[in-house]
Amino acid sequence: MSTPPTTTDAHDGADPCAGAHPPHAAHRDKDAHLKRLRRIEGQVRGIHRMVDEDVYCIDILTQVAAVTKALQAMSLNLTSEHLRHCVAEAAVEAEASGRTELIDEKVAEATAAIGRLLR
User: Fold this and answer.
1) Which of 2, 9, 80, 96 is exposed most, by the fewest CB atoms within 10 A?
2) Among the residues of 30-86, which ranges form H helices?
3) What 8-state DSSP symbol labels residue 26?
4) Are 28 and 85 in contact (CB under 8 A)?
């Protein structure tokens, strides 16, 4: 069994976005993300119930579209958060250390994530 990642205190100077799996507690809007996910989860349960009850397919598709839009909105919010925090921090660190590859890595990471969202 693997050990869960530890959170990093924002004041200790460590980059909370470093590595392949940054501590997710670093999200500034964690509570809002969780609230949105609970709402989406409820919508998906509603779709499940609609299918189980043989609701008209167009009504189900309408709800699927709503869940899809909700997930897209959350993805956009997380992307914005990543750009504002992780990429910006990498730019500051790259400038201070002269290691321009730091910003290139974060931009490549963000670009790949956006590419996965657009598929």
Assistant:
1) 2
2) 30-52, 57-82
3) G
4) yes
Residues 6 or more apart whose CB falls under 8 angstroms from that of 82 comprise 17, 110, 113
In this prediction, the residues of the chain whose per-residue pLDDT falls under 50 are: 1-14, 16, 21, 23-26
Q: Please name the residue that has the structure tokens 């598709």.
A: 61
Q: Give the separation between CA 102 and CA 18, rounded to whole angstroms.
A: 10
- What residues contact 28, with CB distance under 8 A and at least 6 apart? 81, 85
What structural domains does the chain harbor? 29-118 (1.20.58.1000)
Q: Which residue is associated with the tokens 């201070």?
A: 96
Output the pLDDT for position 85: 87
Location of structure tokens 């964690």:
30
Amino acid (one-letter) located at 67: V
User: How much is the pTM?
Assistant: 0.70
